[in-house]
TrEMBL record:
The keyword Signal applies. SUPFAM superfamilies: alpha/beta-Hydrolases. It comes from the Bacteria. Residues 62-304 form the AB hydrolase-1 domain. It holds the Pfam family Abhydrolase_1. Keywords: Signal. One of its GO terms (molecular function) is catalytic activity. It comes from Polymorphobacter multimanifer. This is Pimeloyl-ACP methyl ester carboxylesterase.
Length: 315
């Protein structure tokens, strides 16, 4: 018995040392990533929260881009969407709370509505007037929450590969550990970043399938920033809270009266688009939709010209 207890204690001690070592490695890697990839844009204070955004483009009306889960502002730049839109329009991309260089204070719950209020306030602060608001994936929830809270401030919505109605999400269940007290701290700082390093390439293949992952995505995305513990925490919290956010918002979609374009890939393996995008288009009189053949969840990377054209038609 004593021998078994000693072995158990040794395993626990070894595990604790391994987790501590992983946490140190992740901390050092995060600082190195921040040195390699400093803020791509500007930091402003919005109600006590630092918000990071990029702002570029021509004299046309503003277009605001809101990224999905686990991502950051560079996503739209690497996809080639920003350059296409900025040829004629002012284009603003925001890091959502906890992603890139936008803060995510722990004194509040970062629902889609709370994130929308932060970004809407930031947009007003930098002089953005009635933008076309574009959201991809989780960003569609923030875009719609923004439009529901401030309909007079949103010219139109462009919703890309979104999740709009409460259905089962395996990825949401998988990241629920990020919400568990005690365990969340260990996961976000130690195991989570390492796990993402290991399975990330497979995950990227899944979100792009049936298309191939573009070389520009692998070569130019700042993955080091995306693997920082604070971003792992934000991604886990957002994923776990996604069904509750959708349940609240979907009860009010009928209040959306502005022009809306809904785009999705017919091969999306992450979101069942027949029960999401197709349903949204059928239920909203002001919405027009288009399925892109041979495309998965990352439609703005695989069909950037078509996505840009649909957005510009609203602007």
């Amino acid at each position: 018995m004593t021998n078994r207890i000693s072995k158990g204690a040794a395993w626990l001690a070894g595990g604790a040392v391994a987790l501590a070592g992983a946490a140190v490695f992740n901390h050092v890697s995060a600082r190195a990533a921040e040195k390699k990839f400093p803020p791509a844009g500007t930091l402003i204070d919005v109600d006590g929260v630092k918000v990071h955004y990029t702002d570029t483009g021509g004299p046309g009306d503003a277009i605001v881009l809101i990224h999905g889960n686990a991502s950051l502002v560079q996503d739209f730049e690497v996809a080639g969407l920003v350059s296409r839109l900025a040829a004629t329009h002012r284009v603003i991309s925001f890091d959502r709370p906890g992603y890139g260089y936008t803060e995510r204070p722990t004194d509040r719950e970062w629902t889609a509505e709370a994130q929308a209020e932060l970004l809407a306030s930031a947009a007003r602060q930098i002089g953005v007037v009635r933008p076309v608001v574009v959201g991809h994936s989780w960003g569609t929830l923030v875009a719609m929450a923004w439009a529901l809270a401030h309909p007079g401030e949103v010219k139109a919505l462009a919703l890309l590969a979104g999740y709009y109605y409460p259905t089962s999400r395996p990825d949401s269940r998988a990241v629920a550990v990020a919400e568990l007290p005690g365990i969340a701290t260990v996961f976000n700082n130690a195991w989570g970043p390492l796990q993402t390093r290991i399975v990330g390439p497979l995950g990227n293949k899944m979100i792009f399938a049936p298309a191939e992952v573009p070389p520009a995505f692998n070569d130019n995305m700042p993955f080091g920033l995306m693997l920082r513990p604070q971003q792992i925490r934000a991604s886990g919290e957002d994923g776990a809270q996604m069904p509750a956010n959708v349940a609240r918002l979907s009860a009010r979609y009928n209040k959306l009266q502005m022009p809306i374009v809904v785009l999705w890939g017919d091969g999306d393996k992450l979101v069942g688009q027949a029960e999401q995008s197709e349903r949204l288009v059928a239920e909203l009189p002001t919405a027009a939709g288009e399925a892109m053949p041979g495309v998965g969840h990352m439609i703005h990377h695989v069909r950037p010209a078509a996505v840009a054209s649909a957005i510009l038609a609203l602007a």
